[in-house]
Automatic annotation (TrEMBL):
The chain crosses the membrane at residues 21-41, 47-64, 71-88, 94-113. It comes from Arthrobacter liuii. It comes from the Bacteria. It is a multi-pass membrane protein. It is found in: Membrane. The keyword Cell cycle does not apply. This is ABC transporter permease. The keyword Ribonucleoprotein does not apply.
Amino acid sequence: MRGHGFLLANYVPGNSLLHRAPLALKFLLVFACGLASFVILDWRVSAAVLAVLCGLFLVTGAGVKRLWGAVRPLAPVLLVIGIFQWWQLGGPTAVRIVLNILVCVVAASLLTATTPVQKLLDGVAAAATPFKRFGADPERFALTIGIMLRSIPFIAGTFADVRDSAKARGLERNPRALVLPVFITSVAYARQTGEALAARGLGEAEE
């Protein structure tokens, strides 16, 4: 199985200002960018914000290739969204919507590229701690996020491999040849993950 990134950049060791910034501040940056995507109404402002975020990403030492790797999987979807919005609402609005999506993706990639996964999960668990009074389990919540971060690239890689295999056999337009192998592999992966968690005493509800 080939390795695949999926939307967000992987952690890149470094000593930049963003690497050393508090996790809460980086979470706040992602939240602010998500909020800005609803507030910004001028595509030029969106372009300026995106340019700043891309500059920050490059300053971390992650590189252009990693930035493109985080954005590339979205390209077909953004193209469809852009064309549809252009048809419905006009060019400036379509450009603004596409840029705002990219702002959110690059902001989230800044977080994942400058924060080790374990530290990120510890931060998620800490953020969920206030909800313990409502019966939530912060550790299980962080574990769920960790499994998701690991599973998405695996499934994306499975789909790419199956697609290449189907294309080699002339079956790239056959939905069954694409969907069924991915479904079977994903179910097997989920079962293996569940068995591994159970063997470590995780995933079972506490009595």
